[in-house]
């Protein structure tokens, strides 16, 4: 039990004194960048999905 309490104590101490936390503006910029990147990725995957669907439909319909 002593090892566990020591672990939590040192973890809290390190989080308070050794970690450099970003400022609010840095967090907002990072969040905006992640949002834009996620939207771009979703659009690219959506375009790929629609194009593959149309190609496969045309391929399967060629055998009818």
From TrEMBL:
TM stretches of this protein: 31-52
Membrane topology: Single-pass membrane protein
One Pfam family cited in the UniProt record for this chain: SecE
UniProt keyword terms in alphabetical order: Cell membrane, Membrane, Protein transport, Translocation, Transmembrane, Transmembrane helix, Transport
Places the protein is found: Cell membrane; Membrane
Family matches, as NCBIfam families: secE_bact (TIGR00964)
Subunit description: Component of the Sec protein translocase complex. Heterotrimer consisting of SecY, SecE and SecG subunits. The heterotrimers can form oligomers, although 1 heterotrimer is thought to be able to translocate proteins. Interacts with the ribosome. Interacts with SecDF, and other proteins may be involved. Interacts with SecA.
HAMAP family: SecE
Family, per entry: Belongs to the SecE/SEC61-gamma family.
Function text: Essential subunit of the Sec protein translocation channel SecYEG. Clamps together the 2 halves of SecY. May contact the channel plug during translocation.
Protein name: Protein translocase subunit SecE
Organism: Hymenobacter segetis
């Amino acid at each position: 039990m002593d090892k566990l309490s020591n672990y939590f104590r040192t973890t809290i101490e390190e989080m308070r004194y050794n970690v450099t936390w970003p400022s609010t503006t840095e967090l907002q910029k990072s969040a905006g960048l992640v949002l834009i990147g996620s939207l771009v990725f979703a659009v690219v995957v959506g375009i790929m999905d629609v194009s593959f669907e149309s190609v496969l439909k045309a391929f399967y319909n060629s055998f009818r």
